[in-house]
Amino acid sequence: MPRRVAILGSTGTIGRQALDVIARLPDRLEVTALAARRSASLLAEQAVRFRPGRIAIGDAARADELRARLAGKWSGEILTGTEGIAEIAGSGGADVVVNALVGTAGLEPSLAALRAGSDLALANKESLVIAGELLRKEADRANARILPIDSEHSGLMQCLAGGRSPDAIERVILTASGGPFRTRAIESLSSVLPAEALRHPTWTMGPRITVDSATLLNKGFEIHEARWLFDLPHDRIDVWIHPQSIVHAIVEFADGSMIAQLSAPDMRLPIQLALCGPDRLATGLPRCDLTQSAPLAFEPVDPRRYPCLAVAREALDAGGTVPAELNAADEVLVEAFLDGRIRFTAIAEHLARIVRDAPRGSADGITEILRADRRARERARSLAGGS
Fold first, then answer.
1. Nearest in space to 29 (alpha carbons), one of 57, 62, 7, 54
2. SS3 content of the chain, % helix, strand, coil (to 5)
3. Domain of 55?
4. Based on the structure, what is the number of domains in the chain?
5. Which CATH number does the domain housing residue 53 bear?
């Protein structure tokens, strides 16, 4: 029987790529539910093509538009609001739930999917950043898996396949392209324009994650993810700059040997592996020809150029609700930068202050996490207003 797949955030970049993977494997995968936050027109097109039994749109004001577009073309159930998206995630009707939502909005659906016993294919990194311990406990209780949908953690999962003993692992290495400012004069970073920060050299992504890649905070969040996905202390998770984005992850073992995962920079590969692994299926995805690629280069991270990486480690070391504050503040500050209200370098400056001053509270429940999220947003707005 095909694996039943629900996709949250189906109209975004990752959601569309997941549907492309499913379309290539009709005998292995089928869509049971789709959810989007705002795009009624594209969600309607997806519903007509993939015929899920249920769909949800987070913006309830767009429900009438969605119904009108689907009249006479599709007859499934339409749910609305954040409750509708959570219902899609937690109904138990999917073998695997792909969570490609953006931001803190992805947390409750992640929890709902795991509590229903579905595997969680996770592109919503915020879930693990702000509530990694909570999600890990829910997954263990329900005997469900958290499967990474990003190139670096998928690469680590592949390198660590076979149940390597933790004592055998010296460290793991996540790679980063370095973003658009890898070689720009550090003194000029304060004058970076939003349009410049949105020109990622390798990947096509949404605005926030693209800016986070320019500051390298995205890689800091990936350190948080790796800590919870693979049960590793963060001092054994390293980051290297690798501009070619061909090597996605490296594991160094105690004897000094290394295993690396290489592939073309195409997100459909980790998506396909999350949905169909451990099977390796030929579906026509781009291949990596090392004889034709540029020489593979690696560089250490310059902390002066990328101060956000140290801020992310500080938040992870503090634990509790501090990572939730880091994530929420970043969301506000990136928006302020894109709107032209703060300088590019002010993102790191304000994040460092917020993490330093954040209360060291417990993250045992979603109430505490969301309270910290709101507190950090208020502080970030205040700091952005004064920049």
1. 7
2. 50, 15, 35
3. 3-148
4. 1
5. 3.40.50.720
